[in-house]
Amino acid sequence: MTSTFRLMRRRPAGRFAAACLATLAFAGAARADSVRIVPERDATLIEDASGGLASGSGPAVFAGRIASTINSVRRAVLRFDVAAAVPPGATIEAARLRLHVSNSNSGPTPVRLHRVLASWGEGASSSFGGNGAPALPGDATWIHRFHDGTPWTNPGGDFDPVARAEASVDQVGFSLWDSTPGIVADVQSWLDDAASNSGWILLGDEGRPQTAKRFDARETPDPALQPVLEIVYSPPCRPDPLGFGAWKQACAHGLDRSVTACAASSFAALGLPEIDACRAVGAAPPPSCDARAARKLAGLVLNLCSNRLQTSCPVDLRDTACDAENVAGLLGEIAALLKAGDCRRAAACGGLPE
């Protein structure tokens, strides 16, 4: 069983739609995992026509304009190694960036997040303030992606002009770029194709002086103040869902409370609160038609609640007994057939082998 991993890819219709939507709501919450990662690299691009200034390993990054009348623009770049932190094949559900402001020259200022389009380096140069330090080999500068050989196509960095998110950054404290479709799309693409990951660039108010915001970088000694990318994802479909025998044995030893609670909520959302998952998978042989259908549904629900299936996992399209093309539709369809008294079709619907 392979994963298409697109939650909206489903074909329940009519009487099955409401049950499927409810199932997606609770199953998605039950299966979501999360991870928090710090940048793999970060740096400040310091406006300088020669590309001679940088701050690759300093304790802070800057975005906006400092007080200087020339070469005053600062842009922060950050790259997070998503592919090292999230399992391949997962679906990114949400992501948000959190930075700690350690100094602020003005009041609330919009700071925009853009996707960087070319790779860049983090050299050993270090500057505590926003003036920068002499660029060292491999540093990202205003002119260079990697000092002092590989240039940006555009001075100040190559990035998508369409902002992924914007935050109003004010005084000292944490600022948040909350999850948006653009952020989610970037993180998903970096998971699916790590080579495309050049990170983000932060653009502050570059039209007025003294608007620069100082953010703690990954090199700051206090881990609590380091930049963090928080990612919520659905793990990939597993190829090995447990069968009824395995669940019967698991129930005999006592299921994890979270699985039990998830299963009860699932059956309630499907309009079948009377079904108990463990009793269903442990039906005495030979199971009746109703018992076989309930067992099929219970097996799917237990696999979902234990992260062994996703609602977007495809089902066997060769099965003509049911119309669903993924587990979300299958759950709704089996539940609807059971409630309609058609246990024979409900028991015959695909998804788990008998």
Short description:
The protein has helices spanning 17-31, 181-192, 244-253, 257-269, 277-281, 289-305, 327-339, 343-348; strands at 33-37, 41-46, 53-54, 60-65, 73-79, 91-104, 109-115, 133-134, 144-146, 150-151, 165-169, 173-177, 200-203, 213-216, 228-234. It is an alpha+beta fold. Strands 1, 2, 4, 5, 6, 7, 11, 12, 13, 14 and 15 form an eleven-stranded antiparallel sheet that branches.
SSE map:
Blueprint: H1 17-31, E1 33-37, E2 41-46, E3 53-54, E4 60-65, E5 73-79, E6 91-104, E7 109-115, E8 133-134, E9 144-146, E10 150-151, E11 165-169, E12 173-177, H2 181-192, E13 200-203, E14 213-216, E15 228-234, H3 244-253, H4 257-269, H5 277-281, H6 289-305, H7 327-339, H8 343-348
Helix pairs in contact: 1-4, 1-7, 4-6, 6-7
